[in-house]
Each structure stands twice: as C-alpha cells, then as structure tokens.
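User: Design a sequence. Structure:
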C-alpha cells in the first residue's frame, strides 16, 4: 500500500501515532484543559456560518446509525440510504431525488472535492457524529453539486473520549477489525479511526447466486481529527483521511466468445481476471474565529485519488474485441472561506468563496483487432492504441445572502452566487436563491424556495476521446459525433411542511420540481468501473416525499416514502457512446432516466431494554429502468434486516458489546441492474441472506 506523502497522508500518520501514544503533541508550557462546552460552542458557531436555511434537511445521528443494519460497520452509502428520496444503485452509487449522483460531501462544513468515480466509498460510518442529507432549494453557500449535500459532522475527542477495538465478520467471508481512539488534553483535541476489510462480495454479484465468482475485495481506511483551541473564540483544525481498495471484477459465466485471438476461439468467462485498484487521500486545514457579531471559517483542502483497472487481455479481446487498461489520477487543491455578520436584530449577512484547481493524468492504452468498415474482424492479431491525456482546470464560486427576520415567525433568506467553470468547458452563471420559512404554530413549520442551479460536469468523468482513432477496428463507433459535455442549468422549486405531534412524533412532507437544460447523466461505457458523463438537452425531475420519526422511552421508529419522476430528451453530447437507433429515438422522445425509481422507501424500528437493543429495518425500491431507451422497469425489492446488540458492563469506563445481524432475512433474489438501459454495464444483484456478528471493547 502506498500513498503520496501529501498533507492528508502525513497528517493521518501523525494522528495514528497520537492515538497509539495516548498523549497530545508536546507543548513547552502548561495549557488550560478545554471544557467540552467550549468545543461545543465553537461547533455551534461554525454551523451557524452556513446553515441550511429553508432547505429540506434530514438528520441521522450516531445513535440511529448504531441501530441500522450492521450499524457503524455498514459503509456510509448504506447509512445515507435510510434518508428519504435516496435510491440505491450498483457499485455503491446513490441517487437523490431522481438525480444521478450530483452529491456534494462536506466534512465539518468544508467541501470535500470529488475523486475519480469508481465504486465503494472511502468514507467510513464510524467517525460520524451525525450525517445530514440537505436537499431542495439550497441557500447560496451551496454550489456546483446540488442534488443533495451530505453534511458530515465528525466525532472529536472532547465529546468522545476513550477508545474502541472491535471485530466484525460473517457472510461472504467478511473480516473487519477496526479501532477508534479520541481524547483531549490542554488545548488539544484529537480523534482517530481505522479499519481493514476483506470480503468475497466486493461488488454486486452479476448473477443471482449466493456466492459471486472472482469478487474479493481488500480495503484499508483511516481517518484523523486534530484541533487546537487558541482561545474561547477561535481554533485551528486538521481533518485527514486515506483509503486503499483492491477489487476483483466479478465474472459472469456462460458468456459467448465473439472474436478470435491468435487462434484461440474459446474462453470460459468464469475464468476472467479483471481487477481494479482505487486509492484516495484528503486533508482539510481550517481556521475558525468568532468575535462580536462576526464569524468566519477559512479552510485549505486537498484530495488525491487514483484508479488502476487491469484487464484480462486475452479474455477481454475474445469477448469484447478490445482490452483497455485505465490508469488515472486526480489531484484537487482548493480554498473555502465562509463568513457571517449580524447586521442587526433582523438581518444576518453571509458571504464566501470557493476555488478549486484540479489536475488529471490519464494513461489508458487500448488493444483492438483490425476490422472492415462493417465491423467484421479481419485479423486475429490485436494492435495497441495509445491514449494519454493531461488536463487542469479551475472552479470558482462566490456568494452573498441575507437572512431577514421579517416577523418573529417568518424568515426570508435571499441572495445569489456566481460560479465559473474554466476546465474543458468555459461557462459561468449568476444564480439567484430565495427561501421562506414560516413557524405557523409552535408545532408546524412551513418552507418554500426557489434556486437557480449551475452544475458543471465532473472534471474526472469527462475524458477526451479521438473517436476516429478506432475506426476500422473492432471498437469502431457507429456514431462519430462527439459534442462536448456542458454544464447543467436548472430552475428548482421546493415546498414542504413539518408537523410535531406531542414531543415524540414528527411528520414531514416535501414536494419539488426541476426544469433543466443540458441535464447531466452518466453511464458505464467500458469494462472499467469508471463512469462517463453526458447531457440530455432537456431534463425534468419532480417528486414528493413523506417522512415520520417517533421516539419514546426505549422505542424508536422511522419511515420514509418518496415518489419521483426523472425524464430526459435528446442526448446532445458524447453521442458516439450510444447505439444510433437508441440515439435517434431519444432525440424525439422523452424517456425515463436510467436511474429513475418511481417509488423508494425505508423504515426501521428499535427497542432498548436495559443493556439489550433489538432492531429491524428494510429498504424498498420498485425498480430502476432497463431495456431499449429505458422503456422497461425492473421488479420491486424489499430486503428485511434484523439485529440485536448486548452490552456487558465490566467497569465504570469499560464495556463489551456483542452484535448479531441477519441481512435479507427472506433471502430475496433481486436485481439492481439487468445489464440493459442507457449507459448501463453488466447486471448486478442485491446481496443474498447472510449472517454477521461482532464484538467490541470500549475503554
């Protein structure tokens, strides 16, 4: 395992060493111990700089994470799936409110730049103090990726002193040891976490069978948090993380060979040996200051990611007529400044900027067979096509907004942002934002808003291609048109209500509507699990969500139902990736986007009695799209999960927790993808029934 010795990697090493020693960084003078409430006050001040005024927000605290299927052992995408309007897809992808990804991750209110898309997530559920899904008509501080904000608040050693060592394992030879440790001394606060995972179901199984073929994954993840309280109104924080993930690409047996390779005409598709390696590291250095009526946080951030896909050259050529490696890296550096100023009792101004420089290197050699103009192979000896690329580009964003308390019960948040993309596309937009929040009664809150959105294509998801370079080969494109991917421009409307019934039950309803030009979508167009973005000239997304949360004593329950409709018409970029018949149909017809799921739901219940916790949850999806132009729909699915956790108190500060989880109790066989649809690669099935268990020691 190797990470570049950048800010994230070096900081992670220092946090890990700190955890092992149990001591803070050396200091020449004695320091006053920070009170937990001082740290909490600074956290509250930081959150007040960029509040989600008027947007729709759904919070999942650490206590609820522990009561979901597999608890904090589950990847973070499984945690987010418990929020309303979130549909699951293959390769760990999430779709919020009918959008394809378009998610912005923030850690302690600082933007985490995008990495190269692959599968799995390098973020871990263990270091979450809470995660909030913020969507709807977003206030002006949120730009670029706007389908939803994944707002992560991390644990710190002041509120979470001590440590945990745990082991979790079970089905598919799942093996996952982990540790956490945090504390505070003097003006220093720290927290670090790490885990190792080995599993024989690394990516969704392309067959309905219980066990996948050639699907092992080995993963390392680490996270570190370190802060120094300068005084009661300021601090400096360092957040860092790194991950290393090896994946075998699962095999789909009984596939028919299509080409001849040096006299070989037969190959068992169950013996293919494709692999993909992903590395990520990130670091955030933030300074926060509050004085009088002014609050500010300034942060530098960095993220480095790489993907290496290695094909099975012989097998890929025999089945596909091409074998392409993917070796890509992306480095992003940037700055983010957010500030607020209380002008008077009625007006609070908020303003800030974001700037990111991204640099991508790609070395994607391709082997193909010669072919005639009709695509018929003319030789069994392949030849190589060199595909290399280097690009650099900037994103800039500036915003200004005013929170106006018109009445004690009525607040308007209005403003705008100006965004510039200077990458492979050069575009900009001034985007007004407006939100109204009305506290109609002590228990009823109404909100409504409008947002103009400007969404640049993901820098790493648009790779320049010389379409003519593969003419007269077995990888020739039937369509030669290759218009550039453009930024999406949308008008978004949102309105909702929350109703508290007593002190235990909260109900919510929210509706949204979006009209878009150059709607961005993405698809898998090669063997590597790296997606490429493209545009629909017209896009339309709408839906409605209902939520319910109940807590009383040791009993808690939640439920979410979402109805969504996502449509697109006329693919107007990256046309060479598509079948000409399908492309012509979509040019004159509105179609469902491939990730559209009309009905999505999630629910869970738990009960705590003394030292025992019982829990159950399920996810429901009525099926993503499939077939020619996404005219078909897959079957509904509803896997049910059960679990129990028992706490054994050893001493006042030491506990042992035993956990048992049963996944997909009914052993339902269900497809997430059929392998058909616009931009859809291989078929994927959801996990079959599996048993997991673990033990953790808290000290």
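Assistant: Done.
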């Amino acid at each position: 395992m190797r990470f570049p010795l950048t800010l994230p990697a070096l900081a992670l090493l220092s946090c890990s060493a700190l955890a092992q020693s149990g001591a803070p960084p050396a200091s020449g003078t004695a320091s006053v111990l920070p009170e937990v409430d001082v740290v909490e006050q600074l956290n509250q001040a930081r959150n007040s700089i960029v509040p989600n005024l008027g947007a729709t927000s759904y919070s999942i605290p650490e206590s609820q994470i522990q009561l979901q299927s597999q608890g904090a052992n589950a990847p973070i995408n499984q945690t987010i799936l418990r929020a309303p309007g979130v549909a699951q897809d293959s390769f760990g992808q999430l779709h919020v409110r009918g959008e394809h990804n378009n998610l912005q991750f923030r850690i302690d209110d600082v933007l985490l730049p995008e990495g190269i898309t692959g599968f799995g997530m390098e973020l871990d559920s263990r270091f979450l103090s809470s995660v909030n899904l913020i969507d709807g008509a977003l206030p002006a501080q949120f730009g670029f990726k706007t389908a939803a904000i994944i707002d992560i608040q991390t644990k710190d050693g002041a509120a979470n002193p001590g440590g945990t060592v745990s082991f979790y394992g079970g089905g598919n030879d799942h093996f996952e040891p982990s540790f956490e440790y945090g504390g505070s001394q003097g003006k220093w606060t720290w927290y670090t976490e790490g885990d190792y995972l080995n599993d024989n179901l690394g990516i969704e199984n392309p067959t309905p069978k219980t066990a996948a073929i050639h699907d092992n994954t080995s993963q390392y993840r680490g996270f570190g948090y370190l802060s120094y309280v300068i005084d009661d109104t300021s601090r400096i924080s360092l957040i860092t993380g790194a991950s290393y993930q090896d994946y075998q690409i699962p095999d789909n047996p009984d596939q028919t060979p299509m080409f001849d390779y040096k006299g070989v005409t037969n190959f068992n598709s169950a013996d293919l040996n494709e692999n993909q390696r992903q590395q990520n590291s990130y670091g955030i250095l933030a300074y926060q200051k509050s004085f009088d009526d002014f609050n500010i946080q300034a942060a530098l951030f960095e993220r480095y990611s790489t993907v290496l896909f290695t094909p099975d050259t012989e097998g890929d050529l025999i089945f596909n007529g091409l074998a392409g490696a993917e070796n890509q890296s992306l480095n992003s550096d940037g700055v983010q400044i957010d500030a607020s100023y209380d002008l008077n009792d009625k007006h609070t101004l908020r303003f800030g900027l974001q700037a990111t420089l991204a640099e991508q290197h790609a070395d994607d050699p391709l082997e193909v067979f010669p072919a005639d103009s009709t695509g018929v192979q003319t030789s069994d000896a392949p030849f190589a096509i060199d595909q290399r690329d280097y690009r650099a580009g900037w994103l800039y964003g500036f915003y200004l907004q005013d929170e106006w308390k018109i009445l004690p019960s009525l607040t308007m948040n209005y403003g705008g942002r100006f965004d510039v993309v200077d990458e492979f596309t050069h575009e900009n937009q001034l985007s007004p934002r407006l939100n109204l929040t009305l506290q109609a009664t002590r228990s009823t809150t109404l909100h409504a808003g409008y947002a103009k959105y400007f969404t640049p294509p993901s820098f790493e998801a648009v790779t320049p291609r010389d379409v003519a370079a593969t003419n007269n080969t077995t990888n020739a494109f039937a369509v030669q048109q290759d218009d550039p991917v453009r930024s999406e421009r949308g008008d978004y409307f949102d309105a909702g209500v929350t109703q508290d019934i007593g002190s235990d039950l909260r109900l919510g309803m929210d509706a949204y509507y979006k009209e878009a030009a150059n709607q961005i979508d993405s698809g898998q167009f090669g063997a590597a699990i790296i997606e490429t973005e493209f545009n629909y000239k017209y896009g339309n997304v709408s839906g409605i969500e209902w939520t319910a949360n109940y807590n009383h004593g040791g009993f808690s329950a939640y439920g979410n139902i979402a109805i969504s409709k996502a449509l697109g018409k006329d693919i107007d970029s990256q046309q060479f990736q598509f079948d000409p018949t399908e492309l012509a149909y979509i040019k004159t017809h509105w179609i469902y986007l491939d990730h559209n799921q009309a009905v999505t739901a999630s629910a869970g219940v738990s009960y705590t009695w003394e030292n025992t916790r019982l829990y159950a949850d399920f996810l429901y999806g009525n099926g993503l799209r499939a077939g020619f132009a996404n005219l078909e729909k897959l079957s509904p699915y509803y896997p049910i999960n059960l679990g129990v956790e028992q706490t054994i108190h050893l001493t006042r500060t030491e506990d042992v927790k035993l956990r048992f989880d049963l996944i997909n109790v009914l052993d339902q066989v269900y497809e997430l993808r059929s392998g058909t649809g616009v931009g859809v690669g291989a078929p994927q099935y959801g996990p079959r029934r599996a048993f997991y268990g673990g033990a953790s020691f808290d000290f």
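Helices lie at 7-21, 36-49, 62-66, 76-80, 313-320, 580-588. The longest strand covers residues 532-552.
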